[in-house]
Amino acid sequence: MKGMMLAADELGFKDWLAETEPHMLAHALDHASSEDRTQAMRALSAQRADRIFGLLEPVNQLDVLQSVDERTRRRLLHEMEPDDRARMLSDLPVAIGEALLQELTPDERATTRTLLDYPKHSAGRIMSPEFVRLTPGMTVSDALEAIRSGQKRAETVFLMPVADDDMRLLGTVDLAQIVLASPDMRIADLAGRDVPAVSVLDDQEKIARLMKSADLMIVPVVEEQDRLVGIITFDDAMEVLDFEEGEDFARSGATEPVGRPYLSVPVLRLVRARMVWLSVLAVAASLTVNVLNAFEATLESVVTLALFIPLLIGIGGNAGAQSATTIVRALAVSDVVPRDALRIAWLETRTGFVMGLGIATFAMILLSILFDPSIALVVSLTLVFICTLAALVGSLMPVAARVLSIDPAVFSAPFVTTVVDASGLLIYFMVARAVMGV
């Protein structure tokens, strides 16, 4: 917000509000205080306020709605895209969401409820039910007239679905085709099936990755019997990917995603997001304590072995985290699937072995100079085993999670590190017993 106030001082507050690019202005307002955000929204023209409001984070949209007068609140709600409105309402307590729904017109309320009735992570939640639908019997001239009359409420007209009178999807046609075609040419002759349709119940992330990989601006959304009910646009798909990647990033750090801007998150919500996994990891870490306790006599006879415990569990944990992070990402972008488990295991095992061999060779040379050769041999052999095991465990745990329908990010760096710590110590002491006879 400091940058916002500096900009306002230089240009004049109203000039800054009028001249700043919408996405940049929305970003600034998302990071502003509630009072400054409200002041800015009140100073904007109605048309620009509607545009900026739609770009704010849902939690900040609610803050604005609660601070403006009833007339402005109704206008802002009315001008929102149906899918954006549903996204905001889905994040609110039921009572507040229901109160805001009552301020919509009957048609808007029905449309929004329809979207909210779909499962949370389904295509139906992010689709836009407002689009220009062309029919196969239309001429190009008819289609242009339909576009002119429907473009105000439609989310996009760059690519439009073609459906019959029963709303059965027949294909799509893009605006460039229509503009370049002869006025009396029929839409049926222009429509193609190059753009795949998706089911209203399909997973959002799957659709978003399809759109990104195939470079699709929109995809039609259908129900049973290919009945057209909406479209998903590229910008909505990218929001899904941002959200999913944020979830994966949070869970890779052993915390739950909070789903809202950081500075707007209450302390107790942050504690709740982190405490559960911290407790799970604490329980898992007890394995390490048990291993140390079991080999207490070994440590007492060769105290020097204790010096290398932090080194070994650190390298093993990092090797496992590297592998887990790589496979979580590969699963997310569909580079690999669970049936590739054996190939993944073989590749990561070899990778871990070669890494361990390289580190062990360096360790053997250095430790032989500073310590007893038997200590150097124990540490070096352990490094080879730990790196190999860590890479294998780190690669297979996310795959197993996917098979069990658990988010693979859950079994990422911290969890893998904890498991590898305990197993690495077990390997260390077993190698010490074998080499040194302790």
Automatic annotation (TrEMBL):
<feature type="transmembrane region" description="Helical">
    <location>
        <begin position="377"/>
        <end position="397"/>
    </location>
</feature>
<dbReference type="InterPro" id="IPR006667">
    <property type="entry name" value="SLC41_membr_dom"/>
</dbReference>
<feature type="domain" description="CBS">
    <location>
        <begin position="127"/>
        <end position="190"/>
    </location>
</feature>
<dbReference type="Pfam" id="PF00571">
    <property type="entry name" value="CBS"/>
</dbReference>
<feature type="domain" description="CBS">
    <location>
        <begin position="191"/>
        <end position="249"/>
    </location>
</feature>
<dbReference type="InterPro" id="IPR000644">
    <property type="entry name" value="CBS_dom"/>
</dbReference>
<dbReference type="InterPro" id="IPR006669">
    <property type="entry name" value="MgtE_transporter"/>
</dbReference>
<keyword id="KW-0479">Metal-binding</keyword>
<protein>
    <recommendedName>
        <fullName>Magnesium transporter MgtE</fullName>
    </recommendedName>
</protein>
<keyword id="KW-0472">Membrane</keyword>
<keyword id="KW-0812">Transmembrane</keyword>
<feature type="transmembrane region" description="Helical">
    <location>
        <begin position="352"/>
        <end position="371"/>
    </location>
</feature>
<comment type="similarity">
    <text>Belongs to the SLC41A transporter family.</text>
</comment>
<dbReference type="InterPro" id="IPR038076">
    <property type="entry name" value="MgtE_N_sf"/>
</dbReference>
<dbReference type="Pfam" id="PF01769">
    <property type="entry name" value="MgtE"/>
</dbReference>
<dbReference type="Pfam" id="PF03448">
    <property type="entry name" value="MgtE_N"/>
</dbReference>
<keyword id="KW-0460">Magnesium</keyword>
<comment type="subunit">
    <text>Homodimer.</text>
</comment>
<keyword id="KW-0813">Transport</keyword>
<dbReference type="InterPro" id="IPR006668">
    <property type="entry name" value="Mg_transptr_MgtE_intracell_dom"/>
</dbReference>
<feature type="transmembrane region" description="Helical">
    <location>
        <begin position="276"/>
        <end position="295"/>
    </location>
</feature>
<dbReference type="InterPro" id="IPR036739">
    <property type="entry name" value="SLC41_membr_dom_sf"/>
</dbReference>
<feature type="transmembrane region" description="Helical">
    <location>
        <begin position="409"/>
        <end position="431"/>
    </location>
</feature>
<dbReference type="InterPro" id="IPR046342">
    <property type="entry name" value="CBS_dom_sf"/>
</dbReference>
<keyword id="KW-0129">CBS domain</keyword>
<keyword id="KW-1133">Transmembrane helix</keyword>
<keyword id="KW-1003">Cell membrane</keyword>
<comment type="function">
    <text>Acts as a magnesium transporter.</text>
</comment>
<feature type="transmembrane region" description="Helical">
    <location>
        <begin position="301"/>
        <end position="321"/>
    </location>
</feature>
